[in-house]
């Protein structure tokens, strides 16, 4: 496959499949977007509306508008933004809730740092798309809130009650552990701050980007194992032997993006060898020539092909090829992964989008929903937009 063909296919998929699918989930009665579609493509219009879901949809439509200049996309982004602003953000205590009822009332009032970050990500992109200063102001308020309420001297804390009393972190802990700090939250605060800095050049946020990169390099990255650690105690000591292939390939390109937006040579020199190693190691350990396994926990590989992991693999490998054009294996891997997605991960049924997960042979794992609080157009939509911009 040549690069122009890949770009053409991805553009068609974005404009003819992903965008129409998410437009169809717009709730014009209660605001935001419907929160659940089961495996059989039944939409539950009374399901909870995840605030992460609605932040990510808002981010998606804002970026799709910036790329494609279709006014209907800006209208969708505005619809998402108004739901975040009017319903999801807590006017009394500050911060964004975890989820809302279908009709826009607080349901799960947990305040999670990860969730605050995704709202900043959405608000920053919406500001870029619309020029609406109110969105940038709200993003700054959330950023200051994260720094004042959700940090200690070591790093970013995780979960809080609605008035920001610490609570346990079930929401971002898995694999039988309860983590006091996570790589995932640190990564997505970094991602959100990168976008906020890109549109605002806020010096305070630029300094925090540098600080987060130092924490990644010194505490999260494991040079001996050539991977990131995932779950930690409060001092960033790892608490489980877990290798998250998807997060490593996602981190590789998101860190490079942050370095590029920041434009600081010292951090380019510090982070580039790490991001290169992450991409190389994922390629060697987890890629089978077609698709990427999920993770390896205590030596046992979970070989399911998860939708978001496949999407991040396409960008991560393409990013590595663009940094080192002599490494053609990464371009070939990116193209092969897109072929796998096209063949097996995209659900061909009318009115659907991507399967949640498939077996290594590409057969879908039934009963996983098509839409739920975590399943949204952020990873696959972003993959399409990154390919269009890069190729």
UniProtKB/TrEMBL annotation:
Key word Membrane present: no
Entry EC no(s): 5.1.3.11
Q: What biological-process GO terms show up in the record? A: carbohydrate metabolic process
Reaction catalyzed: D-cellobiose = beta-D-glucosyl-(1->4)-D-mannopyranose
- Enzyme group, top EC level? isomerase
Task: State one molecular function term (GO).
Answer: cellobiose epimerase activity
UniProt keyword terms in alphabetical order: Isomerase
Q: Which Gene3D superfamilies match?
A: 1.50.10.10
Look up the domain of life of the source: Bacteria
Pfam families associated with the record: GlcNAc_2-epim
PANTHER family with a match to the protein in the record: N-ACYLGLUCOSAMINE-2-EPIMERASE
Q: Which family does it belong to?
A: Belongs to the N-acylglucosamine 2-epimerase family.
What HAMAP family does its record include? Cellobiose_2_epim
Function of the molecule: Catalyzes the reversible epimerization of cellobiose to 4-O-beta-D-glucopyranosyl-D-mannose (Glc-Man).
Task: Give the protein name, as stated in the record.
Answer: Cellobiose 2-epimerase
Q: What is the lineage of its organism?
A: Bacteria, Bacillati, Bacillota, Clostridia, Lachnospirales
